[in-house]
Amino acid sequence: MKFHFIAGLPRSGSTLLAALLRQNPRFHARMSSPLSRIVGATLAEMAGEDAPLVSADKRRCVLRGLFDSYYAEEGRTREVIFDTNRGWGTRLPLLTELFGEVKMICMVRDVASVMDSFEILVRRNALERSALFLDEQERATVYSRAEALLLPHRTIGYALASLKEAFYGEYARSLLVVDYDHLVRAPAQTLQVIYRFLGEPAFDHRLDSLQYDEPGFDAGIATPGLHRVKPSVQAAARRTVLPPDLHDRLARMNFWRQPGYSEASVLVGPGGGTTGDRHDMAPLAIGSAAQDVDRDTSDVEAADLA
Questions:
Q1: 203 near 23, Cβ under 8 Å?
Q2: What are the E-state strand segments in 170-296?
Q3: What pTM does this model have?
Q4: What is residue 118's DSSP assignment?
Q5: Does a structural domain hold residue 65?
Q6: Which domain holds residue 187?
Q7: 150, 172, 168, 169: which is closest to 159 by C-alpha?
Q8: 186, 267 in Cβ contact below 8 A?
Q9: 38-61, pLDDT tens digit by residue?
């Protein structure tokens, strides 16, 4: 089996991307898996008080074996495994140690739009008490909900920190940063670029017959629809539900759209922008994260995409 990885921000198209990739009979992909946490826990155990008994070679073999064991069933019929977890960004050095060259697709989206998407889900499920929040104080207002999700160890805050660590780290060349807008506005072209980055042979995807949902998992955290993908890829414009001051503050957190020193690759459109032009999405290409890119944000929402 060959392994590739999907990371990035929540509500930025990672589940949509997985739903598309799994159409390829060579590929296995789905929502976020627990494998990153299993790897971390196993490494911590081997590095504990018994560490002198576990050589570096043994640790490497055990950790690499976790991937093969976890995906043993899927590997019987699929050649390429895409494992999704927002924590992989913090484990790039470990993944490089285990696999050598690593390829990771990092899905991103205007942070204000990410928060807006979560807020829409919360309001849509008004009879539920989403497990995204720990108590009624966190659930109280749109501001308290935003602050809770942005905490360093929580849904958005952790994903942002993990992505930033990978984006500016020494293994940034392993990353392809893909903006949500590109995926929903020009899915066929976006997939072509992703395949080229991964070094995988092209595949003709169907964009109007997607099938993916995780109702059991979503019900378990009292957030129905969190991982539901609509049957077709589509972008739908609507006004944000966030107050203007909160929206503006969050929009300034889109660090990957700023000039920087990262060696990561980014999916860019005409003129080098990382966000999609509203009228012409061609051509898309792989560019450098260090270039001065378009800072425009978008309120595009393709509902029910993770």
A1: yes
A2: 175-179, 236-237, 265-268, 285-288
A3: 0.85
A4: H
A5: yes
A6: 2-301
A7: 150
A8: no
A9: 999 999 999 888 888 889 999 999
